[in-house]
Structure formats: structure tokens, C-alpha cells
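ERR on first pass: missing label on line 2. Operator R.T. fixed the label and resubmitted. Corrected input:
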Amino acid sequence: EVQLVESGGGLVQPGESLRLSCAASGFTFSSYTMNWVRQAPGKGLEWVSYISSSSSTIYYADSVKGRFTISRDNAKNSLYLQMNSLRDEDTAVYYCARGCGGDCYGDFDYWGQGTLVTVSS
Amino acid sequence: DIQMTQSPSSLSASVGDRVTITCRASQGISNYLAWYQQKPGKVPKVLIYAASTLQSGVPSRFSGSGSGTDFTLTISSLQPEDVATYYCQRYNSAPFTFGPGTKVDIK
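pass 2 clean. output:
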């Protein structure tokens, strides 16, 4: 059974940093692209970042470019999101989501339960 | 960047009704489009990928069509458990933009 479990969310002040983790199991993690998607309270889904299976290709939404860094450790079956210079508007539930097998673009077929990040003074 | 729009933003229909949601891309995206369902308080779930391919386990009352810039999600006979917000998403190239969502409830 495919499982994605996020952790690392919490309450931080503007300007601070936070690192999210996503532990994957039930599939060959190293073979799949991965993504972070966020959802602000009462709002829609916003794609945040993509990383290819080999980490060779990485993309970010303009809203987080230069502040967030996606990475993965295929030996640990884990995905990460380092978030720096956090802003109020980064407040959201952050989901990790599985993409496609190989270095490709695809739909997001499995999602974690999400971790809440609250940025507030 | 390619923008995604959806219409309507919300709808209310009766059980058994046929429901159609439209998604439009500002530029052609071939068939690189997915539809997701998010029930209140739940995690999004993919219903349709490649514009018209039903994800395994999704009821056959859901269907998708379209290519290029115009896409539709159809629920052939609305059921109470279909109350949710539906999002389209393009994945032909980054950024993998979601549409703003269509909220569906029961009249």
C-alpha cells in the first residue's frame, strides 16, 4: 500500500524557517517524481514544487522561488521542503504528492494527509 | 505561464442529475490534464488523468473529455457522496497549475 506521511509543520513567525519531510513507503520511491502542493485555509490547491526521480530536474512556483528548496533522499525514501523567509501568505496545509514513474510529467496519484504550516506573529 | 479557469465556480444539483464542469487552458496542453475531487476535510483524489482516462477504482459515472484548451468533467448521475470541490490541473509543463475549483453540492 502506497503511503506518504508528512511531518515538520508548525507555528512560526514571519521570516523564520521550517523544514517539511515526507516519508514514503509501499512503492519504489526512487523511481517516481514527487511534488509539494499547498492549500491555504478555505482556498484552492496550489502546486509548489517538483523534483524528478534522480533530482536532476527541479521546478518551483514563482510564489516560492528563491525561498523554498525541494530535495529528496532516495536511500531514505524521503522528500523534503526547506522553507526560508516564511511569509504570512505561506500559511497552508502542505501535501506531498506522488507524480509519475521515471523522469516525466504526470498527474498526482497519491497524496499524503498534509501538514499545517502557520506563519504568524 | 498557462492559466487554468473553471466554470462554474459552484453548482447545486439534484441527486440523479447530469453535472458538467468545464476547464479551460489559456494555451493548448494536448491531453495533459487531470481532474481531482476533494471532499470536505479530506485529501484530494485523482479521478481522471490524460483528460479522459478514469483512475482505477473511480466510479464509472465520472468521465472526462477534451483536448487542447477545452475540457469537461461529467458526472452522469450525481450521488450524495459526490459533494466535493473539483479541480482540474495541467501537467504538460511546469508550473503544474490547478484550476480554481468548482464546488458541487446537492439541491
